[in-house]
Hints:
Layout lengths: L5 H15 L1 H27 L1 H16 L5
Amino acid sequence: MGAMSLWHWVIVLVVVALVFGTKKLRNLGGDAGVAIKNFKDAVKDDSATPELSQTKHAASQTSSAEPREH
């Protein structure tokens, strides 16, 4: 009784479609798809060049470890 049945989900989807409209939901779905694709591409690019990110990290550590003169 506590679980949502198929009919509950159908009613929820119909109400959401009536409130937001199908065009807005389609745009939202497309935007979410583009965002996921960009995220996957960024993760893929980051893992493809670990040497570059390690070099940048090492350079930032050496510059911050040097004493500052005032």
